[in-house]
Design brief:
Strand order of the largest sheet: 3-2-1-4-5-6
Number of strands: 14
Helix content: 40-55%
Shape: elongated
Strand content: 5-15%
């Protein structure tokens, strides 16, 4: 198939590269000429394991190309994917101007029948809007069909998810469109679920909202565990053994972030409000997450009531491991509050520091390693559970003035921290405060 992908953000680029890897000829379109020039050389604008390698491979195989010219990218396409951003409006609704522009570009540039596939996360009814825009502006008798094909990629494992996903959802209103999009996706060998367009649109929002709900639920349970003296890891493991519940997304921490869960939960609340329905449960999920991101500061203040002039190390800035994405990351709220309270902040992240420098407060200092960040610090806050952080030798914390680690991701065993004489606060587990002199063997 000859495929065009409009938009080379996270979803568009991964989608285009993955489709080229299974044999299709893909042109990715983006208005940013500098970005296009870099992608033409195989340089990915985002950090995603395995993405650059597949880009280079398929560019060399002449199955993947990039352009900033919509006419050049769209004229030969049999199928056009819309994968532009749908950022959040002030009221929580999805901003659809980029989607509307993509639809208008399609009308202007196509020269034969096409199927338009919406990959962007859009409110229920948007695909009907796209179809109306195209049909109302077409000046020829070309046939354009519109399909909803939501993405379910996780940042940090998006390439893996493309080839090992749980399902591919296709929402369409014609057998021809179903058949074409199913044929495109068959080489992924992922189960395909066919449904109507509006249901496909809702599946995306409902899925993310449910996963966000699991996260906020287990975080509330973790807070109760701390008050009662229970251990959240034992509780979540015991819960997860029930197949009706499952173990995924039951890891306590300082809340969710990223480009999907925060935006999609608020958008679904707005979608419900548009039909006069109050989604009280999801409102609670959003409020719990907002409160949870600040938990690590409250724990720090319990240990050091006045942090003015104190050196605080922040380990991990991305919202999750294996990405350089800081969107809705706890690091934004946490570092701002540290600076507000007068602390000296030194941060380290193995991948996300370049992005952080353009997003976080300019007074933050950056270190080249964990050891450098925590040297002579009064406390270390762990915000992202990178493997590098989880696997660090615990003796490194001896570089601190007095070892105090507040762990928002439960990276270490309480017993290990206690044995190394480290004061340790984590989420939903007993604190390690006992100092033990370890006798060298």
């Amino acid at each position: 198939m000859k495929i065009a992908v409009i938009g080379t953000g996270y979803v568009g680029l991964v989608t285009g590269v993955s489709l080229s890897e299974i044999g299709h000829h893909v042109v990715c379109i983006d208005l940013n000429k500098d970005k296009v020039a870099k992608m033409q050389k195989g340089t990915s604008p985002i950090y995603e394991p395995g993405l650059s390698e597949l880009m280079t491979k398929n560019i060399k195989a002449q199955r993947l190309s990039f352009t900033s010219d919509h006419r050049k990218g769209l004229q030969q396409a049999d199928v056009v994917y819309i994968a532009v951003g749908t950022p959040e409006n002030k009221d929580g609704s999805a901003e659809l101007s980029f989607v509307i522009q993509a639809a208008e570009n399609i009308v202007d540039c196509i020269v034969h029948d096409v199927i338009v596939v919406t990959k962007s996360t859009v409110p229920v009814g948007t695909n009907d809007m796209i179809k109306d825009i195209i049909q109302s502006q077409l000046t020829s008798d070309l046939k354009v069909e519109v399909v909803s094909n939501p993405e379910f990629l996780k940042e940090g494992s998006a390439i893996h998810d493309s080839f090992h996903g749980d399902r591919i959802v296709i929402g369409a209103d014609s057998e021809h469109a179903f058949d074409v999009i199913e044929k495109i996706n068959q080489p992924f060998n992922v189960p395909i679920f066919k449904t109507d367009i509006k249901s496909a649109e809702m599946i995306k929002y409902a899925s993310n909202a449910f996963l966000a709900t699991k996260i906020s639920f287990i975080n509330e349970i973790s807070n109760i565990c701390e008050l009662l003296g229970a251990n959240i890891e034992n509780v979540s493991t015991g819960m997860g053994l029930d197949q009706r519940i499952g173990s995924q997304f039951l890891k306590a921490g300082i809340g969710y972030g990223g480009s999907c869960f925060p935006k999609d939960t608020k958008a679904l609340i707005q979608i419900a409000g548009n039909v006069a329905y109050e989604f009280e449960l999801l409102k609670g999920v959003v409020n719990v997450n907002k409160k949870q991101q600040g938990l690590i500061i409250r724990k720090l203040n319990d240990c050091i009531p006045n942090i003015f002039g104190k050196k605080i190390a922040v380990l991990g800035l991305a919202f999750k491991p294996n990405t350089d994405d800081l969107r809705e990351s706890a690091s934004i709220l946490v570092t701002e509050e540290l600076i507000k309270q007068g602390a000296e902040v030194v941060a380290y992240d193995p991948i996300a520091m370049d992005n952080a420098k353009s997003i976080l407060n300019t007074s933050i200092q950056y270190a080249d390693s964990i050891a450098e960040a925590i040297e002579n610090s009064d406390a270390a806050l762990i915000l992202t559970d990178w493997d590098e952080i989880k696997n660090v030798e615990l003796t490194v914390f001896n570089k601190m003035k007095t070892p105090l680690v507040i762990d928002g991701r439960n990276c270490f065993l309480v017993e290990d921290m206690e044995m190394h004489g480290i004061e340790y606060r984590s989420i939903g587990r007993p604190a390690a405060t006992k100092k033990i002199e370890v006798t060298p063997i």
